[in-house]
Amino acid sequence: MNRLFRKIAVLAAPSAAALMLFAAAASAHVTVAPTESTTGAWETYTLKVPSEKDAATVQIDLRIPAGAEFKQYEAVPGWDVKIEGNKISWVSTGEGILAGQFQRFYFTAKNPDTAGDIAWNAYQHYADGSLVQWSGEEGTETPHSITEIVQAAAGGGSHSGMAMDDHGSMNMSDQDSMSMDEHNAIMEEHDKASGVSPMIYIALGISLLSFLLAAIALLRKRA
């Protein structure tokens, strides 16, 4: 019996490794949400930055896609914001984002007036001097986020509902404060944006199926 369990453990090892790799890939990406918005809308976007190294993340640069216009940002304690053309930089004034942590940055941009996909290229700076460029295509190790801009319905359009102060940062008034439903919707979009390439799901499925078939065959042989 112990020998049987050892064989099953050997068979399970690749599947366990695949699960760990899948979990790591799903959580380590820098993402921008939502993944879908409408033409011409003032959309509140959320940049989520996890630290995947032992070193802290001390700066994140985001390139605003062609056709989109940066409008506002929400001030975050411990971070300065620098705007240079289409590049928005969040620069840490403290410890930054430590290993095992993540930080969300909120900003508003006006979407392009034409439908299509826009790509958010991000550049993550670490305290050890290393740089991770989140500018690759889907399926690469460091993909950029994509937002699909769809045609707005006649008379439609949206606005972030946030007021801008004298410094260009967003302030939430009592009347315009983000509702729990809106907050949950943003978190939902992040789950989607943090997703990985479909090929990873396929590889994971094949790995698990192979393990199950091998285990069944082994049990039948023992019977």
UniProtKB/TrEMBL annotation:
Transmembrane segments: 199-219
Superkingdom field: Bacteria
Endpoints of the signal sequence: 1-28
Keywords: Membrane, Signal, Transmembrane, Transmembrane helix
InterPro entries, A to Z: YcnI-copper_dom (IPR012533), YcnI-like_sf (IPR038507)
Domain YncI copper-binding: 29-87
Protein species of origin: Paenibacillus jilunlii
Name of the featured protein: Uncharacterized protein YcnI
Keyword Membrane (UniProt): yes
